[in-house]
Specification:
Blueprint (H helix, E strand, L loop, with lengths): L9 E3 H12 L9 H7 L3 E3 L3 H9 L7 H13 L3 E3 L11 E3 L4 H7 L2
Parallel strand pairs: 1-2, 3-4
Amino acid sequence: MQLESAETVLLSAASIWEIEIKRARGRLAAPPDLAERALAANFAPLPIGVEHALAAGRLPLHHRDPFDRMLLAQAQVEALTLATADQTLRAYGVPLLVIARPAAASDASSR
């Protein structure tokens, strides 16, 4: 599967939350209207529900990042494929669409 051929692309509230935290701390260059741009590009919002929170809390501790755990839980509960650059998430058995990180992004994350 490729992102371009997906019938629907969902945008998790957890992704926007994480992006905004990193942007505010100066760790990520993202436009302040990123969520609005994504919605204008026909990304469908995926709110965080109680069932997602329960599933995230019950995941094995292969990975401790709370945002990744929420995205994994949402993918499990909603039977979705998760687009990510983090291949360590394979340990959860969720279908992944592995996205390559741009060279500048991977350089910045290693600082």
